[in-house]
Structures are given as structure tokens and as C-alpha cells.
Amino acid sequence: DSGVTQTPKHLITATGQRVTLRCSPRSGDLSVYWYQQSLDQGLQFLIQYYNGEERAKGNILERFSAQQFPDLHSELNLSSLELGDSALYFCASSKTGDEDTEAFFGQGTRLTVV
Amino acid sequence: AQSVAQPEDQVNVAEGNPLTVKCTYSVSGNPYLFWYVQYPNRGLQFLLKYITGDNLVKGSYGFEAEFNKSQTSFHLKKPSALVSDSALYFCAVSRRAGGYQKVTFGIGTKLQVIP
Q: Is the pLDDT of residue B58 over 80?
């Protein structure tokens, strides 16, 4: 158990809908990352937060947004969903978010868009 | 720019034999290198990292990795493979870019240990 909690584990929704994925980082970790894993794209970095502030942006679509709350949990919002958004979405956390620190991953949310 | 290459989609090894999972990287400046493992239906788990110092890094579950600066490689190794080592292995490179951490993962190598 990595200590990172993601909910829900599975989500099935229709095209055009909006969903929210939730992540609670490990106790004491200030940085949260979101990743998308699909068969054809591999593991893609979406966005990073540190202590409530956005720190880095990766390949995140404009239809997606995220935030980190004062209690350090984070939410990833996906809207106007398309079939191609079906993937595993991982949240990870680390103490500092610095380049020499490892990340701890949650078990992921499997999103299926039908 | 930075990149990670894992040239083998799959590696098959017999139980008890040594295993190697290959990784090469490209990054400007000093690299920070990581290996993660992903078991089916699970998130990635940190195995080991190279920051600086000794080129041979020891990690969890008996794994180790050798940093080779001249060959820009960071191959993952284990002296004796177990069936339970069968999983997907990811190499990653990290650096500071524009004041923040930039991490790039390889596409992953599936390790199959045959009993």
C-alpha cells in the first residue's frame, strides 16, 4: 500500500459527460501529480501541484482541469468526454516535488467512456 | 528536451537466471534516474533511483541498476529472477526545468519470468 488513495477505482460514463477523480496523497507529501496511462500513449504526465499551487503542466487537454485543496487532496476534472479519454488515471505524490524525489502512486481510476 | 528509451517491449527469462531490463536516456545536465514496477491492476511502485555517487544503485526486492554516463544507460538487473518479478517495468528520467521538476517515463518493458 503506497498510502495514496484514489477514488473511484472504476468509472463508466457516456461521451460528452463530466467526471471528477479524487486523490488523497500520502501523509506529509506536499506535491501531487496526475498521469494518464493508455495502451497507445504509455504513461503521460498531465499536471503537478505543490502545496496548493500548480507547479508544472504536461500534456493536459483544455477539457481537463485539476486543483489541489488546502488539505492537500486533489481532484482531476474531465469534461466533454470522448471515447479516446478512456484510460487509467493515476495520482502520485511526493514530499517535495523536487527532481530527485521519487513518487508514490495510487492504484488508479479506470475510466471507460462509452 | 529529454527522453527515455526502453528498447525491448518484452523480456523473457527463466526463473533463477539473471535478468536485465534496458534503459537509455537523453537529458541535458545531470540526470536523475528512476525505476518503477507495475503489477497488474496496480499503480507504479518505486524500485530505486540514481541521484549521484556510486554508479551501482541497490533497490527493493533484490533489484539493482547500473548508471553508465558514457553510454547514457541505466539498466535494471537482478542476479536471480523470481516468477513473482513478472510485471511491467518503467524507467524514468527527471530534471529541473524552468524551476520545476520534469519527469519523462519510458514506454515500459514487460518482464516475463518463466518457471
A: yes
Widest pairwise Cα distance in chain B: 48
E strand or H helix that includes residue A90: strand A87-94
pLDDT, tens digit, for every residue of A69-84? 999 999 999 999 999 9
Chain centroid, CA B101 distance in Å: 19
Q: Is the pLDDT of residue A41 over 80?
A: no
**Are A31 and A93 within 8 A, CB to CB?**
yes
How does DSSP classify residue A36? E
Identify the pLDDT of residue A50.
Answer: 94
3-class secondary structure, A84 = helix
Closest Cα in chain B, distance from residue A88 (Å): 10
Measured distance CA(A104)–CA(B28) in Å, rounded: 25
Place of cell 507495475: B38
Nearest to B90 by CA among A4, A70, A52, A37: A37
Q: With contacts defined as CB-CB under 8 Å, which chain A residues touch B41?
A: 107
Q: Write down the mean pLDDT value for chain A.
A: 94
Contact B101 A104 (CB under 8 A): no
Q: How many CB pairs under 8 A join A and B?
A: 58
Q: Is B79 helix (H, G, I), strand (E, B) or coil?
A: coil
Residues A4 and A72: their CA atoms lie apart, in Å, by 12
Out of B42, B90, B105, name the one closest to residue A107 (CB). Answer: B42
From its phi and psi, is residue A100 left (phi > 0), alpha (psi between -120 and 50) or beta? alpha
